[in-house]
Description:
The protein is an alpha/beta fold and 403 residues long. The protein has helices at residues 38-47, 62-71, 100-105, 108-114, 132-141, 203-214, 223-234, 259-268, 380-383, and strands at residues 4-9, 30-31, 35-36, 52-56, 82-86, 118-123, 127-128, 146-154, 162-166, 172-177, 191-202, 237-241, 253-254, 296-298, 308-310, 313-314, 319-321, 324-326, 329-330, 335-336, 341-343, 346-347, 352-353, 358-360, 362-364, 369-370, 375-376, 388-389, 395-397. It is globular and about 70 Å long.
Amino acid sequence: MKDVLTVLLAGGAGERLHPLTRHRAKPAVPFGGMYRIIDFTLSNCINSNCRRIQVLVQYKSNSLSRHIRSAWNIMHPEMHEFIDIIPPQMRINDNWYLGTADAIYQNLYSIDQEDPKLVLILSGDHIYKMDYQRMIRFHQDSDAELTIATIKVPIEEARRFGVIEVDREDRVIGFQEKPEHPRPIPDDPGSALVSMGIYSFETTMLKHAVVEDAERNHTSHDFGKDIIPKLVQTNRVFAYRFQDENKKDTQYWRDVGTIDSYWEANMDLVEVDPLFNLYDKEWPLRTNLPMSPPAKFVFADIGKRFGVATDSIVSPGCIVSGGMVRRSVLASDVRVNSYAYIEESILMEGAVVGRHCRLKRAIIEKHVQLPDNTVIGYDLEQDARRYRVTPSGVVVVESYNGA
C-alpha cells in the first residue's frame, strides 16, 4: 500500500443533521458514546494498512481537526506514514470546494507531492467496516483505471443512490444518479448495485479527469454527477462489491445523514445483538479515549431511587446517581441525578440531567444542563416550541458551549 495515497473528504456541512452540525462538521459529530463519525473510516484505513492519508476539511473544521490531532497521532513519519489535515488552500482560485471533484482538483499540488500510483478517495461520514486492501487488489487484478465500491440494495431503495450498471464481469457500463427506475444486477432482478462513494483511481487518470471537469461550464464538479458518467463511456471502470468486515449476516453501511437515521443507528448499538459490532478485537475501532474515571452507579433504595442502566452504553466518567437509564447511549462524563428516567435517548459529553427529569427519544447535546423536573419527549407539540423535533418524534436539545 506504499504506492497508494488515501484522500478522505471530510468537508461536508451536514445540513440535514442540524443542529448537531451547528458548531461542527458532520464527520466530527459524536456517535456511539465514545466515537466521532470519522473514526470509523480512519479505523478502516489503519486496519487496511492505509497509512498515507490526507484529510480535506472545510466547514466548521476546528473540532474535527482537534480530534484528529489528539486521537490519531499514531503514525511514524520515519516510515513515511502520516495523517495530514488540509484546509482549503485557495491555490487555484478563491472558491471554497464546489463539489467532491473540485476538492480533489484544488488539492492536486498536495497529491503530486506524494507521487502515488493510486489514489483512494473516501468519505468521512459513513459507518461501516471495510478492508480497502481487498478493493485495491481487485482494482489491480482487473487492470482498472477507476474502481467504484458498491453495495447491493433492494431495487426499490436504489433510487436514493447512484446506481451502477455492470456486465457479468462487473465492468461498469452505465451510471444513474438517483434514477426513478434503477437498473437491476444482471443475475439478481430484485436488487441493484449502488455507489458507496469510495473510489480507487489511477493517479494520471484522476488528474486528467478533474482538470477537464474544472475547465467545463455547467458542471456541479461532483464525481457521481459529472466525472463517473463520462469515464464509464471512455475508460476501464469496474465495480467492487463490498465485503463487510462486520461479521454479520446483513451487510452494514450507514449514512447517518439525518437526525432520525443518526438516532436509529445509535439505538441499534444497545441491542443485545446489534447489527454493528463495536466489540470485535480483530477489527479495532480507535478514538480519543477520555481521561475520566470508570462509570459509577449509586443508590439502590428499592421503591425510592435506584441508580441503574439497562440495555445501554455508558462511557467512562458517567455517574448514574439514583436515576434510571434504559436503552440509551451516554457519552463520557454524563451525570444523571436522582429519580430521573431516561429512555431511548442519546446524551453527549458532559450533559447533566436534573432530579425528576423524564426524557424519551431525545438527543441532549454536549454540556447541556437540564433543570430538575424537565420533561422532554412526551408532548411533542410543546417540545417543538423550544427544540427541534424530527418527523419521527426525536427531540434535539442544543448546546451553545462548543463542539
